[in-house]
């Protein structure tokens, strides 16, 4: 299956094979399509899905072992999701709801805080657009990305990019990730390295399959 056509092929496979099926990429990937099945598998039976694949390409983006919210697994992931012993004492929906609300409150949701953050970021975004000399030819790609990044960064780190200077670092990182994804999608060695991890140890081939992507992440 060609990766660039995944969004078109998956719905077709859904119609042919039902709500749950396996796609070989070349590793077997179980695809769950419908909300009820997803909820049953990942919420009600969440303990069965605490593991992660630490092979390529996931390994290239892990800064620390078993870190982050994307690739953490086991107890570390369970703590981040707030699924601990209390879930056994209460109904799953009730506890999940309370945990989610608690997390959102810790990040400033409620009391108008989040609304103010978004309003400030929106005002800066509109001000930047109004300052442009040629409004008939505006590339919205970067202004929108900076706008979204500012909302998140201001909430988590009390930091925001301006639209002329400091945003260049964000743009460089985004360009590196864009290149990484596009190049990996067109590189057949990536699929082989996913199936045969020992290829990473082979000179030249290992660098072309995995090593150069590690170098890109290191630059970030």
Mean of all residue-level pLDDT scores:
76
CA-based gyration radius: 21 Å
User: How many DSSP helices?
Assistant: 9
First-last Cα distance: 30 Å
Count every beta strand, where a strand is a DSSP E run of 2 or more residues. Answer: 2
Percent helix: 55-70%
User: How much of the sequence is in beta strands?
Assistant: under 5%
Structural class: mainly alpha
Low-confidence stretches: 83-96
Widest sheet: strand order?
Answer: 1-2
Quaternary organisation: single chain
**H and E order:** HEEHHHHHHHH
Question: Judging from the principal axes of the Cα atoms, what is the shape?
Answer: globular
Main sheet properties: 2 strands, antiparallel
Describe the fold and architecture.
The protein has 9 helices and 2 strands; from the N terminus they run αββαααααααα. Strand 1 and strand 2 form a beta hairpin. It has helices spanning 6-17, 35-44, 74-80, 92-106, 113-131, 141-157, 167-185, 188-195, 205-219, and strands at 20-24, 28-32. With 220 residues, the chain is mainly alpha-helical. Helix 5 (113-131) runs antiparallel to helix 6 (141-157), helix 7 (167-185) runs antiparallel to helix 9 and helix 8 crosses helix 9. The chain is 55% helix and 5% strand. The relative contact order is 0.08.
Descriptors for this entry?
220 residues; mainly alpha; two-stranded antiparallel ribbon; 9 helices; 55% helix; 5% strand; globular
Topology, element by element:
Blueprint: H1 6-17, E1 20-24, E2 28-32, H2 35-44, H3 74-80, H4 92-106, H5 113-131, H6 141-157, H7 167-185, H8 188-195, H9 205-219
Antiparallel strand pairs: 1-2
Helix pairs in contact: 5-6, 7-9, 8-9
